[in-house]
């Protein structure tokens, strides 16, 4: 497997890749610059939208809507009219912002927060229900990041990046609750820091390693590294399965924390890449609102 350069988005902090099957498109965001990107696979003509706030995640909503996280709030965005409608406020902490998020099989949005200055334990992990009720599930989180559900929806894998761990939680889909089970992967700092994550049909975890120049495939049953796909950039931030057969990974990257010399050495930093895999992922769950 190898990573193929797809598009020169030059994101300061590319994140939140999402496959929208209905539009045959990949979406992703540039958090700090408040930009949303869409790459339609058929045309390759990229659409972009700019927002006044930081944008940290994008998932599919109902009809022509996307659900976005902007700073500390969740909004509904109409792709046709470009109307933005606020749904809920997740936090009210001036020093914080939201980060990664995904929907479970019931359409709840799960999203974490973090300090904009990376203060230890300043963040939390929440869910947003269909009635816009916000529930806090985990506290003392530093950088809430990757998450992935098993096929049976009984386990949620979750990453708080600075811990260098992937933890497994018992997940109750009906009630939208979780309980810590065990640590399934511990990642040596020499391989970078775990960031965004997705899961394949074999139950293996594909994790973007920030500072690790690649996407790493880990086995949560043994805790062992299975393979690595190297990228020509140091800061790899997230990945998601997509494409007609759900066997293609879209990978986001970042330019942040690189000096001028490093940017000259790694000029594709901030761009997005595709990896044709030997396995498949799942369609993402859309939001229920």
From TrEMBL:
InterPro entries: 6-blade_b-propeller_TolB-like, SGL, SMP-30. This is Sugar lactone lactonase YvrE. A divalent metal cation binds at residues 15, 145, 195. Binds 1 divalent metal cation per subunit. The active site is at residue 195. Belongs to the SMP-30/CGR1 family. Keywords: Metal-binding, Zinc. The keyword DNA-binding does not apply. GO terms for biological process: L-ascorbic acid biosynthetic process. GO terms for molecular function: calcium ion binding; gluconolactonase activity. Its cofactor is Zn(2+). Gene3D superfamilies: TolB, C-terminal domain. It comes from Cecembia calidifontis. Pfam families: SGL. Residues 13-255 form the SMP-30/Gluconolactonase/LRE-like region domain. Substrate binds at residues 97, 99. SUPFAM superfamilies: Calcium-dependent phosphotriesterase.
């Amino acid at each position: 497997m190898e990573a193929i350069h797809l598009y020169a988005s030059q994101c300061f902090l590319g994140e939140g890749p999402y496959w929208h099957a209905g539009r045959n498109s990949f979406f992703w965001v540039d958090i700090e610059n408040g930009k949303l990107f869409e790459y339609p696979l058929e045309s390759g003509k990229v659409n972009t939208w700019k927002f006044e706030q930081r944008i940290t995640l994008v998932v599919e909503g109902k009809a022509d809507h996307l659900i976005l996280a902007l700073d500390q709030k969740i909004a509904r965005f109409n792709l046709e009219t470009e109307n933005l409608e606020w749904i809920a406020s997740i936090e009210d902490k001036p020093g914080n912002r939201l980060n990664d998020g995904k929907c479970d099989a019931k359409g709840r949005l799960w999203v974490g927060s973090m300090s904009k200055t990376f203060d230890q334990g300043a963040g939390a992990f929440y869910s947003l229900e269909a009635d816009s009720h916000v529930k806090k599930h985990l506290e003392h989180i530093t950088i809430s990041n990757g998450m992935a559900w098993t096929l049976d929806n009984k386990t949620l894998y979750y990453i708080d990046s600075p811990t260098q761990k992937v933890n497994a939680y018992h997940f109750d889909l009906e009630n939208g609750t979780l309980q810590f089970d065990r640590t399934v992967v511990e990642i040596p700092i020499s391989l970078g820091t775990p960031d965004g994550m997705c899961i394949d049909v074999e139950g293996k975890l594909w994790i973007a390693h920030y500072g690790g120049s690649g996407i790493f495939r880990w086995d949560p049953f043994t805790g062992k590294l299975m393979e690595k796909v190297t990228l020509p950039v140091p800061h790899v931030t997230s990945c998601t399965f997509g494409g007609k057969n759900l066997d293609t990974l879209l990978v986001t990257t970042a330019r942040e924390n690189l000096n001028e010399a490093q940017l000259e050495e790694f000029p594709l930093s901030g761009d997005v890449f595709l990896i044709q895999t030997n396995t498949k992922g799942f369609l993402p769950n859309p939001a229920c609102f």
